[in-house]
Design brief:
The protein folds into 2 domains: 188 residues, Glycogen Phosphorylase B (Rossmann fold, 3-Layer(aba) Sandwich); 159 residues, 3-Layer(aba) Sandwich (Rossmann fold), CATH 3.40.50. Helix content is 43%, strand content 16%. It contains 15 helices and 13 strands. The strands form 2 sheets. Strands 3-2-1-4-5-6-7 form a 7-stranded parallel β-sheet, with helices on both faces. It is globular, with a radius of gyration of 22 Å. It starts with a strand and ends with a helix.
Amino acid sequence: MNLYIDARALQKRQWRGQQLYVHRILDEMTDIGRSDTFHLHFGWDEWHPRIDDLIVKPNVVCHEHRGRIRSHASLPLEIVRTRSRIYFRMYNEDSRLRVPIPSARVALVLDNGRHLFPREYAIADAPELRRATRRHIRCFDLIITISQTVKSEIVELFAVDPQRIVVAPCAVDPPAGAAPGERPPALAAERPFVLMVNPGGANKNWQDALAGFARFARERDDAERVLLVLAGGLASERERIERAVRSDALLNSAVVCLGHVPDEQLVWLYRRARLALYPSRYEGFGIPVLEAFAHGLPIIASDIPVLREVGADAAYFVALGDTEAMAAALDRLLTDDLLRERLVARGHERVQDFSWQDSARTILDALATVARR
């Protein structure tokens, strides 16, 4: 079977969750579907070196059509020329198809944050965006998404038949052996710390993290000073986060903003942290929860449907906006060794339920079914 896959999502200088998902799924699909031919479509100016790992595979054909107009206009011609049965668009679920696609059409939808929280995402006309997305999303024969929570959202927001939606969850790779990682230079090795990954972004809820941590720190009566480490780009929230930290003397001395860290340093952070904190208001999945589980780290997560779905009984959940409960959770997980051990054991079991290979096989099976129709 010939599959034409729009892989322009990978053409980003800095990868985020979307790029990691697309790359990992493509890597597994091309390994599993050895008798299939995967035509990967690229058309933007940026290039990422990890794309090279995909296009050297014997069943992968690279199609480069640079330029915004040319990259869109070339799609139907290339699909016809390659006799592809499927067009799988793995990027930007909200933008409409600009040209007719002469094959079965499949779209990847990672989340619905812009529709559910338009103010946080600075959406000027939320009703119009929803109407446009509804018209657009109904043009696809199949929708791939990453959680049952997002599937339910799509059904409710856009009146899509649930039978047309397939869930292929994210996963994480097991930590590489006993590699110690590399300590970030800005972090003192001897200080205990709580880790929050990817604090930037309107949905990440750094506000609850800072408020809960400040209350926890003020209520401690011992001499040990625990740090809160923010690892990951601060993005559009940089100014607000830095202002909030500077305005509080306690936070100014106890919060370390590392910004983006390379993988080696992230491994060190996960392995040295006392616990992880993920109080997000909204997620399509929440990979940092699985990352914490994989590294044997207990995690405090916000009590929202998708994190309940991912974390199950292996995470410690706190209601959004409950500063007192956040402070109490921090204190308990830092002092209750039995609870920590129980959550770590459950996390180790939970992370085994997610597999890149299983998700890739689920997608391939769904694509084959659509192609046969």
